[in-house]
C-alpha cells in the first residue's frame, strides 16, 4: 500500500499508513524505510526524512547498505550534502549505489573536485564503476567545467572498463562542451556519434546556443529537433527566445505563428512549498491562490534583502518575454 501511495505521490496517505503500522504494534523494516524515503526526496521533506533516520538508528537498521544509500540520496536531494557525507563516513560496508548516489549529488551541486575524490575512493575500495557511475562523473565534470578531465573519463570508460557509451553519456559530453562555450566542438562530437542523436543530446546544445547567441547553429539544430519531435512546444519557444535575444522579431513572430498553427500548448511551470504537513502548489503567473497578496509582499521583502546582499537578478528572459509580446502585438 505504501509503495502504491509513493508511486502516486500521495504523501499524506503514505505517512498515515506508516503511522498506522507503528500504532498496530508492527515494526516497519528496511523495505518500508527504503520505500518511503523517496517521497522525502521528491518533496524535499527534510523533517520527515530525519524522523525516518532516527527510526533507522533506534531500530537497528543502520547497518543495512540499501537504507544508508537511501538516506544519502534523501539528504543530498534536500540540499544537506554534509548530512549525506556523514551517513557515508559512518557506513561499514558500501556498494556501487553508494558511490553513484554521492558522486551524482556532489556533481549536481557543482562540487566537481569532491565528486572526483569519491570516484578515487571507490577505486581504492576495488568497486568497479558502471555506466551510471560515468553518467554521474561526466555530469559532475560538466557542471564544474572540467573539459579535459571529462574527456579523459569518457575515454577511460571504454578503454579501461569496457563500458560502451549510450545516449546519456553522449548527452553529458555534449553538455560538457556546450556549458563551457565550445559549441562547435559539441556539434563535431554529435556528428562523430555512431548513432543518431536523440532529443536530449540536441536540446542540450540548443540551450547553449541561447546563452552564447549562436543563431546559425540554433537554426540548424532546431530543424533537426522539429523533425524528430514536432509536437513539443518547448523547443519552439526556446528558438523563439533565441531570436528575441538578438532582436530578430520577424523570426520570433514566425515561430510563434508555427506554435499557434500546430495547436501546441506549453505546459505552465509548477512550483510548490511545504508548510507544516500541507503542500501548497503554484502555477506560473497564477493569481488565484487565496493568500497571493501576502506572498507577493514577502517576495518583495526578500528581493530587497537579496539586493542589499549584492545579488543582481538576471532579467534577460523577462525582458525577452516583454519584448516578444510588444513586437507580436
UniProtKB/TrEMBL annotation:
InterPro entries: E_motif (IPR046848), PPR_At4g14850-like_plant (IPR046960), PPR_rpt (IPR002885), TPR-like_helical_dom_sf (IPR011990). It holds the Pfam family E_motif. Keywords: Repeat. The keyword Signal does not apply. The keyword Lyase does not apply. It comes from the Eukaryota. GO terms for biological process: RNA modification. GO terms for molecular function: RNA binding. This is PPR repeat.
Amino acid at each position: 500500500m505504501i509503495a502504491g501511495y509513493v508511486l502516486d505521490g500521495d504523501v499524506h496517505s503514505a505517512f498515515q499508513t506508516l503511522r498506522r503500522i507503528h500504532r498496530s504494534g508492527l515494526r516497519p523494516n528496511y523495505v518500508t524505510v527504503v520505500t518511503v524515503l523517496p517521497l522525502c526526496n521528491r518533496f524535499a521533506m527534510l523533517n520527515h526524512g530525519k524522523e525516518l533516520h532516527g527510526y533507522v538508528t533506534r531500530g537497528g537498521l543502520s547497518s543495512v547498505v540499501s537504507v544508508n544509500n537511501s538516506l544519502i540520496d534523501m539528504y543530498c536531494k534536500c540540499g544537506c550534502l554534509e548530512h549525506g557525507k556523514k551517513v557515508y563516513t559512518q557506513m561499514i560496508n558500501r556498494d556501487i549505489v553508494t558511490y553513484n548516489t554521492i558522486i551524482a549529488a556532489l556533481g549536481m551541486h557543482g562540487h566537481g573536485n569532491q565528486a572526483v575524490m569519491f570516484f578515487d575512493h571507490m577505486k581504492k575500495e576495488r568497486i568497479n564503476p558502471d555506466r551510471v557511475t560515468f553518467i554521474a562523473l561526466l555530469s559532475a565534470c560538466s557542471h564544474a567545467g572540467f573539459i579535459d578531465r571529462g574527456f579523459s573519463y569518457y575515454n577511460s570508460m571504454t578503454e579501461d572498463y569496457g563500458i560502451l557509451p549510450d545516449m546519456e553519456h553522449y548527452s553529458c559530453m555534449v553538455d560538457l562542451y556546450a556549458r563551457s562555450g565550445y559549441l562547435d566542438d559539441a556539434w563535431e562530437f554529435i556528428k562523430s556519434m555512431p548513432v543518431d542523436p536523440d532529443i536530449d543530446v540536441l536540446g542540450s546544445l540548443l540551450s547553449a546556443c541561447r546563452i552564447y547567441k549562436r543563431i546559425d547553429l540554433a537554426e540548424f539544430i532546431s530543424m533537426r529537433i522539429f523533425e524528430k519531435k514536432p509536437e513539443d512546444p518547448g523547443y519552439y519557444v526556446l528558438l523563439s527566445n533565441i531570436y528575441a535575444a538578438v532582436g530578430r522579431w520577424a523570426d520570433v513572430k514566425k515561430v510563434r505563428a508555427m506554435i499557434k498553427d500546430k495547436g501546441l500548448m506549453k505546459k505552465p511551470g509548477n512550483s510548490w512549498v511545504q508548510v507544516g504537513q500541507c503542500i501548497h502548489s503554484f502555477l506560473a503567473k497564477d493569481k488565484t491562490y487565496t493568500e497571493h497578496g501576502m506572498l507577493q509582499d514577502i517576495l518583495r521583502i526578500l528581493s530587497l534583502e537579496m539586493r542589499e546582499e549584492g545579488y543582481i537578478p538576471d532579467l534577460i528572459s523577462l525582458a525577452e518575454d516583454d519584448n516578444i509580446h510588444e513586437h507580436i502585438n
